[in-house]
Fold:
Amino acid sequence: MKRTLVLTVCVLLTAGAVAAQTIFPAERLERVKQAYSAGDEKAREAVAALEELAGEYLDREPVYVTQKRKLPPSGDRRDYMTLSPYWWPDPAEPDGLPYVRRDGERNPEVYDYPERENSGLLGEAARTLALCYAVTGEERYAAKCAEWIRGWFLDPERGMNPNMAYAQLIPGRTTVRGTGIIDSRRFCYALSAVAWLRGSKAWSDEDEAGLRRWTTEFLRWLEESENGRKEICSANNHGLWYDAIRLMTVAWLGDRERARQIAEHSLAPRLAGQIAEDGSLPLELERTLSLHYSTFALEAVALSAELTADTGYSLWSYRSPEGRSLEQAVAYLEPYYREPAAWPHRQIKPFDRDRGARILYAAGRALGREEWVRTAGEIGCRPEKSDCLSLLYFDL
Structure:
């Protein structure tokens, strides 16, 4: 498969009944469509690469939340369930229970719980297929995308219940936790695909109404459940992603005012409280994958900035009374995106420089810092194979 050029941060989603931000800035998507229609060589090459990837999803059956061997504690196969990745059997206990934490080391048992992989597959498949439809107008892409989305969210027998009560379980431990909510970002990415399906014969008014009901119920669970009330108090990347996930749902539902409130009154001060005077994120520096998690935290905020770009509030422009800002955090990380080997903190696995370049590109465009845009290009984000993000940066 041909490789395309620079990617940028994965920025979400669509609002329901009103026009709002989608997964990509509208002007970028329109630029691709125009270039493709005009026969631009780079655009044609990028679309061909994306269609090759889309072909993989056209040829396979959708995934469902019920494709699991083990039942969740509720006994309902439609409840999402995964294993917390960094918890392992305790070697000091005959039965290994309760599990103990080994930060940054993924227990292979997580792959016995297919929702983790399947929800990510859903998000990528839906976005890829829908974007192919948006650019080419070919109904086969819209039809398959709608099939995937209906299967995960709306199927009466196999569709997911709108909760994350059993996400990232820890064997031997029964305390209610909110940390598994972060998993939901993967399937929430699929919501963004619906904006491009509207107008296709493959996506009906009934589908739209059903997904709106599901999303409304899921948002209610996020904010009212014990799990959600715990996660909203998280001080590290989990708290940032909790707000980003709420924004994914609120933006899809089309509530701009609510989106602005979440960004301005929850996410922005939460971010400021995590940034040190030098721009670092101390709670992420404690991790064994500290460059990864520092970047992961900023990805949540950059995503949220895109979701709220049409609300009149800018997370990129936010400055706390102490001077803390998203720009300050990016500036701290920028030298290490260029040279990850110089990172002075623990990073027990290689860092994916593509992710750093995406942050720099998004920050550079938002803040008018062309040097960051150039650095992103110099890093040269080239994924091993094309993905849905690659298309929008065909000309870089």
